[in-house]
């Protein structure tokens, strides 16, 4: 794992956006398309604000989430909603969205078709992950009902229910995350920094982010 510490979060978010854009450009030199997986939640919005304005062959970029909360896009909790509002806009409006949600009461009902849409995007060209203070990444939560499958199984996409998650989720599995050509994790604040330091000493069953740390660059700013 490489740890990059930044003097402030604003600078960090712009640097990460530049880095992701540069990795996508490099990938597009030798591939007809590049896949970019990004987190939802409260942290990545400023990265999306910068990245969407970048000049890039966005029509050859396929964007997907690392995980989704099983709620429609009308919900403030929808990660897809965040993507549409802050990443798939401006220059990046030309990118293709690979969905992780489809209308149904529970993820199991649509899992197969979502997995089929995901398969051609693998291995992920560029992966950006977030992390919760409870050391979950994507929606691989400690104490989740299908943690074992998400960490050690062969599935690409895993439905998840967890004490720390108010709604059902779908998440890319650790197998998919670990297969990415390039992995970045973005975290802010002292609490998440302490969680990261703790995760480095724990097994993924207790600290799911540990499953992806080895090959990741972690970007951290206090505030
Ligand atoms: O629920 C989620 O949580 C993590 C961390 O979110 P944050 O709000 O603490 O930045 C996020 O990476 C994940 O995509 C999201 O669904």
TrEMBL record:
EC number, as in UniProt: 3.1.1.31
Domain of life, per lineage: Bacteria
Keyword Ribonucleoprotein found: no
Single GO MF annotation: 6-phosphogluconolactonase activity
Pfam families: Glucosamine_iso
All residue ranges annotated as the Glucosamine/galactosamine-6-phosphate isomerase domain in the record: 7-220
Database matches in InterPro entries: 6-phosphogluconolactonase_DevB, 6PGL, Glc/Gal-6P_isomerase, NagB/RpiA_transferase-like
Keywords: Hydrolase
Enzyme class name: hydrolase
UniProt pathway annotation: Carbohydrate degradation; pentose phosphate pathway; D-ribulose 5-phosphate from D-glucose 6-phosphate (oxidative stage): step 2/3
GO BP terms: carbohydrate metabolic process; pentose-phosphate shunt
Keyword Hydrolase on entry: yes
Catalytic activity as recorded in UniProt: 6-phospho-D-glucono-1,5-lactone + H2O = 6-phospho-D-gluconate + H(+)
Record function comment: Hydrolysis of 6-phosphogluconolactone to 6-phosphogluconate.
Entry's family note: Belongs to the glucosamine/galactosamine-6-phosphate isomerase family. 6-phosphogluconolactonase subfamily.
Protein name stated in the entry: 6-phosphogluconolactonase
Species per Swiss-Prot/TrEMBL record: Oceanicola granulosus (strain ATCC BAA-861 / DSM 15982 / KCTC 12143 / HTCC2516)
């Amino acid at each position: 794992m490489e740890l990059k510490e930044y003097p402030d979060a604003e600078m960090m978010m712009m640097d990460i956006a530049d880095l992701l854009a540069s990795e996508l450009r490099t990938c597009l030199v030798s591939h007809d398309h590049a896949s970019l997986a990004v987190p939802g939640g409260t942290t990545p919005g400023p990265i999306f604000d910068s990245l969407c304005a970048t000049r890039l062959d966005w029509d050859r970029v396929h964007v997907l989430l690392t995980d989704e909360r099983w709620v429609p896009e009308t919900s403030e909790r929808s990660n897809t909603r965040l993507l549409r509002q802050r990443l798939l806009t401006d220059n990046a409006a030309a990118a293709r969205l690979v969905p992780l949600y489809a209308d149904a009461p529970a993820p199991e009902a649509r899992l197969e078709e979502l997995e089929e849409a995901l398969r051609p995007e693998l291995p992920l060209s560029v992966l950006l992950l977030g992390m919760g203070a409870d050391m979950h990444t994507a929606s691989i939560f400690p104490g989740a009902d299908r943690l074992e499958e998400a960490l050690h199984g062969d599935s690409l996409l895993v439905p998840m229910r967890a004490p720390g998650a108010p709604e059902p989720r779908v998440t890319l599995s650790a197998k998919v995350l670990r297969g990415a050509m390039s992995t970045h994790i973005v975290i802010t604040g002292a609490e998440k920094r302490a969680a990261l330091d703790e995760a480095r000493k724990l097994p993924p069953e207790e600290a799911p982010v540990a499953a992806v740390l080895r090959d990741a660059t972690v970007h951290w700013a206090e505030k």
